[in-house]
């Protein structure tokens, strides 16, 4: 049941930041995640602060350097259908298109997709789990088919976003507004591993909101994609996936960013794989080696060891499709 | 069943229509017996306060159980009506037939009388018939049969399964209505596809609580999971002994074989037997990887 809360619709970022700094305030962008969490009583809200009145947070525009500025309130549908994004930053367009369902993509925003709460059924369900302040991560001894094979400790969620991994691969920057002013971070630095703090997913302090995402210009000879493996054709989170952003010069890989999704509590970058690719021709042999390296060090739980071959297969297939 | 003096019919029955076409098919049965158009028939049904007894909607038995009862009720009304008409027309009752809201002589079509002009009906304002459905013929086993065919594509790198085609062939004896039959079998295929590919209840082994009691984690198939080509074929075998309408049921056989057909198709594609449903990437990938290790 929805809790009783105060609804606030600020007219400026400064006002939004002010009301969001108050205890019990929850930010409402698209609401696709917030309303589910409130109805399922995952957390409470004293006030719900809608960002819908903030036109500064909307729109997609080119930056001076040939990059792109995407407002935090831009919907996943807008990103998925934007011809410029599909051409210059295909991994992001494909990530946005792979998320959720058409209705949810029409409503869900990029900022919200980055800041959504985890989908772990112990976190969402009637379990006093560690992420909600309890003693246990129930996934350790329980039903962990969909849980992490990398980066878990004390909590084994996987990050649910399909746009986060592409944005990390594309070296995007996130701009944040808060009580102490604005700041910028690489998207890669937005997320928090459970070893650091298992009760939150982002570094956002109380009152802080994501205002925009900045993409650097496309690399010369750039290629990229997002490959998501899921259990059903739509409205499903990743069992495993990979975002690739490569550039190819004279037949050889000049730069590479490889970021896995659905396997860790944060978008999981694999720098060793990037090193293996750079400076070499991408062929079937190297793709297979890279895929093997991508899952090296994985620590599967009782029910998710399938993710190791699955992610290896997805990475190999994704790399081969760029050959 | 009541035939009113304006020629309209009310059928009072316990049988429910849970989207399976019960009302449509029952109207057809009554229309055929009484020679009245479908739009003159009102089905008043499935209200425990006001309707006659019927069994529940299940067991693939609404058509074979309730339609013979409707037919028997219609025959009783028809018998009363024709007797009344025969008296008025001074013709033997065997000579009379019902069609288009009229009683007509089969020997001389010029001799006819509107149903609404039959004095018995005018006098009583309503003719009532009650029908029941008795037991099956002794020693006769009545079963439906269905065969499903599945074609799949398997991504051996990821364990993803795409069902590309489904075909159902079903023996329900007489098909009462092609559209409702086909729609029900199509729906059965999708339910079977859910069992075969995506739907699964997950219980937490530590607490016994259900992990996926919501429409996101409990995955019913979406439009993207249903194959673009999904065909339904009726075998159309004749069975004159099963009941007085010659129809067997439809529902369950349309959903029973699907998951097994998909599992067999997966085996045919990649040589792996998946003994549990649904066949998800986690389950299939684990088996494919285990086979890879064995060499």
The value of Rg of chain A in angstroms is 19 Å
Write down the Rg of chain B. 26 Å
Assign the CATH class of the domain at 55-115 and 158-215 in chain A.
Alpha Beta
Shape type of chain A? globular
CATH superfamily of the largest domain in chain B: Aldehyde oxidase/xanthine dehydrogenase, molybdopterin binding domain
**What share of residues are in beta strands of chain A?**
15-25%
CATH class of the largest domain in chain B: Alpha Beta
Q: Mind describing the biggest β-sheet of chain B?
A: 4 strands, mixed
Overall mean pLDDT of chain A: 97
CATH architect. name of the largest domain in chain B: 2-Layer Sandwich
Structure description:
The complex is a heterodimer of chains A (323) and B (295). Helix content of chain A is 28%, strand content 21%. Chain A is built from 12 helices and 12 strands. Chain A has a 5-stranded antiparallel beta sheet. In chain A, strands 9-10-11-12 form a 4-stranded antiparallel beta sheet. In chain A, strand 6 and strand 7 form a beta hairpin. Chain A is globular. The mean pLDDT of chain A is 97. By secondary structure, chain B is of the alpha+beta class. Chain B has a 4-stranded mixed beta sheet. Chain B is elongated. At the A-B interface, helix 8 and helix 12 of A face helix 6 of B.
Summary keywords:
heterodimer, A: 323 residues, alpha+beta, Uridine Diphospho-n-acetylenolpyruvylglucosamine Reductase, domain 3, Enolase-like, domain 1, four-stranded antiparallel beta sheet, 28% helix, 21% strand, B: 295 residues, Aldehyde Oxidoreductase, domain 4, four-stranded mixed beta sheet, 6 helices
Give the helices and strands, then pairings:
The complex is a heterodimer of chains A (323) and B (295).
Chain A: E1 6-8, H1 13-20, E2 25-28, H2 34-39, E3 47-50, E4 60-62, E5 68-71, H3 76-81, H4 83-88, H5 90-98, H6 102-107, H7 110-115, H8 121-124, H9 164-169, E6 173-178, E7 181-186, E8 209-215, E9 222-229, E10 240-249, E11 252-261, E12 268-269, H10 271-277, H11 284-294, H12 307-322
Helix pairs in contact in A: 10-11, 11-12
Chain B: E1 2-4, E2 9-13, H1 22-34, E3 41-45, H2 62-89, E4 96-99, E5 102-105, E6 112-114, H3 119-124, E7 126-128, E8 145-155, E9 160-171, H4 178-197, E10 229-234, H5 258-270, H6 281-294
Parallel strand pairs in B: 2-3, 9-10
Antiparallel strand pairs in B: 1-2, 1-7, 4-5, 5-6, 8-9
Helix pairs in contact in B: 1-2, 4-5
């Amino acid at each position: 049941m929805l809790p009783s809360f105060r609804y606030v619709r600020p007219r400026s970022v400064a006002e939004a930041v002010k009301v969001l700094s108050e205890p019990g305030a929850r930010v409402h962008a698209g609401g696709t995640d917030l309303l589910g969490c409130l109805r399922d009583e995952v957390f409470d809200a004293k006030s719900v602060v809608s960002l819908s009145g903030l036109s500064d947070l909307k729109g997609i525009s080119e930056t001076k350097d040939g990059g792109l500025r995407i407002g935090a309130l831009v919907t996943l549908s807008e990103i998925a259908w934007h011809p410029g994004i599909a051409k210059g930053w295909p991994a992001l367009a494909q990530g946005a298109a792979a998320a959720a369902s058409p209705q949810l993509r029409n409503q869900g925003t990029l900022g919200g997709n980055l800041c959504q709460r985890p989908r772990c059924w112990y976190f969402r369900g009637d379990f006093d789990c560690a992420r909600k302040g309890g003693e246990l991560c129930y996934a350790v001894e329980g039903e962990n088919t969909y849980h992490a094979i990398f980066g878990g400790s004390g909590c084994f969620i996987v990050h649910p976003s399909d746009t986060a991994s592409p944005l990390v691969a594309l070296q995007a920057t996130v701009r944040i507004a808060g009580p102490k002013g604005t700041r910028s971070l690489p998207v890669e630095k937005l997320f928090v591993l459970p070893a650091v703090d298992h009760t939150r997913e982002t570094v956002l302090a109380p009152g802080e909101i994501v205002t925009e995402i900045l993409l650097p210009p496309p690399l010369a000879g750039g290629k990229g994609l997002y490959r998501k493996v899921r259990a059903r054709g739509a409205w499903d989170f990743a069992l495993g996936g990979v975002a690739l952003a490569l550039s190819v010069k004279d037949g050889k890989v000049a730069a590479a960013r490889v970021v896995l999704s659905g396997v860790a509590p944060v978008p999981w970058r694999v720098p060793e794989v990037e090193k293996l690719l750079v400076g070499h021709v991408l062929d079937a042999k190297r793709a297979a080696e890279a895929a093997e390296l991508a899952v090296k060090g994985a620590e599967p739980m009782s029910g998710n060891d399938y993710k190791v071959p699955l992610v290896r297969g997805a990475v190999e297939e994704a790399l081969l499709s760029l050959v | 069943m009541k035939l009113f003096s304006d020629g309209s019919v009310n059928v009072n029955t316990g049988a429910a229509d849970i989207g399976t076409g019960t009302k449509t098919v029952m109207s057809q049965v009554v229309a055929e017996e009484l020679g009245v158009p479908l739009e003159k028939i009102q089905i008043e049904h499935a209200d425990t306060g006001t309707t006659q007894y019927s069994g529940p909607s299940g067991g693939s038995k609404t058509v074979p159980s309730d339609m013979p009862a409707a037919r028997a009720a219609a025959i009783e009304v028809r018998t009363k009506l024709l007797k009344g008409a025969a008296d008025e027309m001074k013709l033997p009752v065997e000579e009379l037939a019902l069609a288009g809201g009229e009683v007509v002589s089969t020997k001389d079509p010029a001799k006819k009388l509107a149903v609404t002009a039959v004095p018995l009906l005018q006098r009583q304002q309503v003719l009532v018939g009650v029908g029941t459905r008795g037991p099956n013929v002794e020693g006769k086993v009545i079963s439906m049969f269905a065969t499903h065919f599945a074609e799949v594509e398997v991504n051996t790198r990821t364990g993803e399964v795409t069902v590309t085609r489904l075909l159902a062939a079903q023996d329900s004896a007489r098909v009462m209505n092609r559209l409702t039959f086909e729609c029900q079998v199509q729906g059965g295929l999708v339910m079977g596809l859910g069992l075969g590919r995506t739907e699964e209840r997950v219980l937490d082994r530590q607490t016994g609580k259900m992990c996926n009691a919501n429409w996101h984690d409990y995955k019913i198939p979406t439009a993207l999971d249903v194959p673009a080509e999904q065909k339904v074929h009726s075998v159309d075998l004749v069975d004159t002994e099963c009941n007085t309408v010659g129809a067997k049921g439809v529902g369950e056989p349309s959903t029973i074989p699907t998951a097994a057909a998909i599992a067999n198709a997966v085996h045919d594609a990649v040589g792996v037997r998946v003994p549990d449903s649904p066949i998800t990437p986690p389950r299939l990938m684990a088996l494919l990887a285990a086979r890879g290790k064995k060499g």
